[in-house]
Specification:
Alpha-Beta Plaits, two-stranded antiparallel ribbon, binds iron/sulfur cluster
Length: 173
């Protein structure tokens, strides 16, 4: 490499670095991104046959709609076997005569969303809740009751996302 090319490349690099010193950050990093600015959940509309974009964290199960059809369980069977159908004889939901509901093992789930796509009864969604780490492996298992708790909006968002038409999303702080 000629010395002139080296110097030219070096100057371009330095110039690019200096320019970025005066620009706002384009990326927000964890945990700043964990502000759940919306509760848009990943969903599937079986009537229209389309997926509805949204977050893909832990699931939300609407027990008032789940029929116990097991299609979510079957969808997951060849992916990660994260879903188990759990009998809950104490429940009394008229649409679920078998009284079985899905539970999810987040030690196995890969968050693909296929189980949501497979649900024909608008009973299964994925929420923005992605902070799922546990010290005990067993705590990664979410029963149907735990899945049926709706997520809460974070009251103190830590990032202020703005959109720059040319450059994309940036953190306004
Ligand atoms: S998101 Fe994918 S891996 Fe997780 S439970 Fe659903 S089908 Fe299984
Ligand atoms: S969540 Fe949906 S797919 Fe799974 S058992 Fe219930 S109704 Fe069937």
């Amino acid at each position: 490499m000629k010395i002139t090319e080296f110097v030219k490349g070096f100057m371009i690099s330095v110039n690019t670095g200096i320019q970025h010193l005066f620009r706002k950050r384009m990326t927000t990093m964890y945990p700043e991104t964990q502000n759940y600015p919306t509760l848009d959940m990943y969903a599937y509309d079986p009537r229209k046959g389309i997926a509805v974009s949204g977050w893909r964290g832990r699931h939300y199960l609407d027990m008032t709609k789940c029929t116990g059809c097991q299609l979510c369980y079957i969808a997951c069977e060849n992916i990660s076997e994260a879903i188990e159908m759990v009998p809950l004889p104490e429940t009394n939901y008229p649409q679920n005569k078998k009284k079985i509901f899905p539970a999810v093992d987040y030690g196995r789930c890969v968050f693909c969303g296929f189980c949501v796509d497979a649900c024909p009864f608008y009973a299964l969604y994925m929420t923005p809740v992605a902070e799922l780490s546990e010290y005990d492996r067993n705590d990664l298992y979410y029963s149907p009751y735990e899945l049926s708790k709706p997520p809460a909006v974070n009251p103190t968002p830590r990032a202020k996302e703005k959109i720059d038409i040319k450059r994309g999303v940036y953190d306004e702080r």
